[in-house]
Amino acid sequence: MKKIRDILNCSPVVAAILANRNMLSESDILRFRNASLSNLRPPFSMKDMDVAVRRIYAAIKNNEKILIFGDYDADGVTATTVLLEFLRYTGADVSFYIPHRIKEGYSLQSGHISDYAVPNKIKLIITVDCGSKSHEAVKLAQDSGTDVIITDHHNISDGPPGAIAIVNPKRPDCDAGFNNLAGVGVAFFLLVCLRKYLREMNFWQNRSEPNLKNFCDLVAIGTVADVVPLVDENRILSKTGLEVISSGRRPGVNALIKACGISNNVVRTEDIAFRLGPRLNAAGRMGHAKTAVRLLTTDDAETAKQIARTLNQMNQKRQEIEKDMVEEILEYLKEYPHLLRQHSLVLSHPGWHEGVLGIVASKIVERYYRPVILISTRNGLGKGSGRSIPGIDLHAGLVACSDDLQFFGGHSMAAGLTIKADNVSQFQEHFETAVREASEPGDFLQTISIDYELDFDNISDELIDELESLAPYGEGNPEPLFIARNISVASSKIVGENHRRMTLRQQVSGRSTKAINAIHFNIDTDKGLRQHFDQMAFRLGWNRWNGRKTAQLIVEEI
Coil, strand or helix: which one is 553? Predict the structure, then answer.
């Protein structure tokens, strides 16, 4: 830690936090602290990147019809928008297509080729955030005279399709080292390479080169919403993107910020994760994801306001359905408690809304801390979504059960599947076996990692500013968690439905420290309000309100 303090001239608290995140070499420490676009590693070594760039350039030059085919989540929507806006700027003949989640399902399929691409004379399809398992669709496209470039970040378990280029950092023969990128990150790096190639071809002689930094707002939203690790390139792109969001240059994002009720237009990663991202996702879950693309691409503030309002309503409806499903599952598990003796939960129901399966699975994982797969069955077919816990690879579990499934895809923490309804019970057994064989008892013990024991007297404005410099926080770079002992409540009140706002003091060596404001979200008010805590785990930051900022603890565990 002394080495870190010497390099950064920082507090012992920040040095401990960086050491906990394995920031030990000088280059790692400086790269983490100075997360700017100039520190991005060149993406030109990604497998098939050169092939993809040359083919796109030929399509632009020859005015061929280009179709961007995206996924319906926030990652896919932002990736679609990034590519669409750049290619429109070049003058390309480009359009986009995102399938309907419920009516069409995930990724590029044969019907999209025969029913859309061929009739519309599409000569080049570029997938974003999908396509790595679309073997039949890619073959049909190639046989029909349509080239396919796949850009994706999902695992490839059964060999890549026969596309002319597959830009996916997770393909086994790609050693470029960008495995943590989201789909929008892969799309952004495609543009980095394409812009450079266009420069080499003297394409920008008659128009100015686009500033790719202006796309980083979308990259940040897609990256954070997809819960990929906020390290390396993802950290740089997200930090830059948050700055671009704050500049207010995109009407759609501005309108969504206002619709979310984010104050002072100061957007943080948690705002993307819990406010912006869910509303963009709501379009694909409750309606059609093209609504979200329309929001992100419009230049008209009034249009953006109307679409943002629509997404807000969709999200409210999603929350209602999600709440009912969670309550239904909790009641079911009370009735059949033996299911909780298993290492996993695979549940199915004919009436479940397919658009919220993943979110509900996440809620059940939070409560019971084991892999969860929820399947909605109708007309003999089931569509499912799963979520996992650290240490248990969900995608690997599905690979082990592939004979039971018609289709599956995803990564270690999240995946989707299609299955015949008659196969659900045997899949349930096989998946449980796969999880049991691949796990250790300790994998199911939920722990919290404390960064530092921090007494109230050591909390200062300077420390909070230092902590803010470590943002953006997210998967792979969690917000620092502190512990303090012997805490008393000087005053408190309930705000909202079940949040407790408090003024706290700490007893140290027989004396009381300075008071500090705190809030504890989502408490059970029926259990009574304690006035003293032997120990408390908390996060620390600024509470900004009406142009003022005050220090505040966010209580996590007591």
Answer: strand
